[in-house]
Write a structure and sequence with these properties.
Blueprint (H helix, E strand, L loop, with lengths): L3 H22 L3 H18 L10 H13 L6 H30 L4 H6 L2 H4 L2 H11 L5 H13 L14 H36 L4 H15 L2 H15 L21 H27 L4 H25 L3 H37 L3 H8 L4 H31 L1 H6 L5 H10 L3 H29 L6
Helix pairs in contact: 1-2, 2-3, 3-4, 4-8, 4-19, 9-12, 9-14, 9-16, 9-19, 10-14, 11-14, 12-13, 14-16, 15-16, 16-18, 16-19, 18-19
Length: 461
């Protein structure tokens, strides 16, 4: 950090604001004890003083604010978030430790095998740097410390199979592709499963309920690779509606003035923008009274998001290339939506059947409220909780859970990368994919817990 402005802000202004706030809010000696510890960790990281940080300065940057807020008598949701963040940091350290020792216990030394590569042996500087980075000649506890230090410094090593690419570069390249694919399919399957599940549960026992349940069970239990082969044969080979595999048509990208990765990132940001617009519409609809006004608000924000996205892609010069990616995306999305919506629908149906037996549903009916109001406002909101948890956590686990889908459709994302790294014994890349998945799952649990507090008025932290 050599910029004088940054030095003033991070070394002076930011800590000073923390001290002033702590003095203003502090009412007990423990407030100042936690303040002193957090400042010591912060300045230890800022000055890179090795005796004041644990694994790396970046780990202190994560730990210092959590310890700082332990000096205040927080309550409710803020206290819960603080405690959960502390648990996440602890679990993250344990998870990374377990992954390290699992690979350490495997027969043979993967670092030695990697260092025998002629491309590395021919470059003495790279060879010595790799030996030092992996701690080849060090005892296990030094290797462990270096592994943790490298992880929190975001230095995950160099891929064996894609040398000299760094692991974090490969993850940054493949992650947008996986998120783009699974975010689109997860949102669509969630909406379909939620809507159909609540409807068939409300009119249980009818023909629609039986047919939908039967179809849901079939898709939920079908052998996934076989089902995807059928889709590929039908839509890609026989009807030729969609490409057979891959995520771009190379012939269309020869003279492209930008990379496919740049288009992928913009598509992912567009997808997130539309998701945010939908969430804003739901929040605004929650403050309205009539069902018609709620639907108008939600659809208004969704259509507005679609219009803005259309104008953006029509004017940025990437629209044709984005359509090529979307064309390749269509078949995997169809496969994932038809498979996942079945599970979402069955979960929503079973939860709704339990909720409609509750006393407050009987009370709402006794008051003479319309069936749609009782179903959508009272029953479905409570029944949504397990489905929301499944959606959030499932979205995080798709980083490694998309192995089958990405392999069948040759979609070069995180799932296919993890499979190829495992089969090629590319240990640094496999460790990087596994650890990154663990981080996302831990954060997803926190998001699910916070959503519970907003969705269910009975829950108070």
């Amino acid at each position: 950090m050599t910029n004088p402005v940054l030095i003033i802000v991070f070394a002076g202004v930011l800590p000073a604001l923390g001290v002033v706030y702590a003095i203003y809010k502090g009412k007990a000696p423990q407030n100042y004890i936690f303040l002193a510890i957090s400042l010591a960790l912060y300045y230890g990281a800022l000055t890179n003083f090795r005796y004041l940080y644990l694994f790396s300065p970046r780990f202190n940057y994560i730990l210092a604010p959590i310890i700082y807020f332990y000096g205040f008598n927080l309550s409710g949701l803020s206290k819960f978030i603080r405690n959960r963040l502390a648990q996440i940091v602890l679990l993250l350290v344990i998870y990374v430790t377990v992954v390290f020792f699992i690979f350490l216990a495997m027969p043979g030394d993967y670092t030695t095998k990697f260092l025998q590569d002629p491309k590395i042996r021919q470059n003495p500087e790279v060879y010595e740097r790799m030996k030092q980075l992996f701690g080849v000649d060090d005892p296990w506890y030094v290797k462990y410390y270096k592994h943790m230090k490298n992880f929190f410094n975001l230095e995950l090593g160099i891929s064996f199979s894609e040398y000299p690419k760094r692991v974090e570069e490969i993850i940054a390249e493949r992650l947008p592709r996986t998120l783009f694919l699974f975010l689109a399919s997860s949102v669509l399957s969630f909406l379909l499963g939620f809507d159909l599940g609540k409807r068939i549960a409300w009119k249980r026992g009818g023909l629609t309920d039986k047919m939908a349940t039967f179809v849901g069970i079939v898709f939920w239990t079908i052998f996934t690779p076989f089902y995807m082969l059928i889709l590929i044969w039908l839509f890609a080979v026989t009807l030729r509606l969609f490409p057979l595999s891959g995520f771009i048509t190379p012939a269309k990208w020869f003279d492209a003035p930008f990379s496919a990765q740049a288009v992928f990132i913009r598509l992912l940001l567009t997808e997130l923008f539309m998701l945010i617009m939908w969430i804003i519409g739901i929040v605004v609809a929650g403050r309205l009274k009539t069902i018609r006004a709620k639907r108008t608000a939600i659809w208004g924000f969704v259509i507005g998001g679609v219009v803005v996205a259309f104008i953006y892609w029509a004017t940025n010069g990437m629209g044709t290339y984005a359509l090529d990616i979307i064309h390749h995306l269509a078949l995997p999305v169809i496969a994932l939506v038809t498979l996942h919506f079945a599970g979402d629908m069955l979960v929503m149906r079973d939860t709704m059947l339990e909720v409609i037996k509750e006393d407050y549903i009987t009370t709402a009916r006794a008051k003479g409220l319309p069936d749609k109001v009782i179903r959508d406002k009272h029953a479905a909101r409570t029944a949504l909780l397990p489905l929301m948890t499944s959606f959030v956590i499932g979205l995080a686990s798709t980083v490694s859970g998309g192995v089958i889908t990405e392999t069948m459709f040759s979609w070069k994302g995180m799932g296919l990368t993890l499979l190829e790294a495992t089969t090629a014994q590319d240990t640094p890349l496999a460790i990087g994919c596994l650890v990154f998945t663990g981080v996302l799952v831990l954060l997803a649990h926190l998001v699910a817990d916070i959503l519970y507090a907003f969705l269910d008025p009975r829950i108070r932290y």
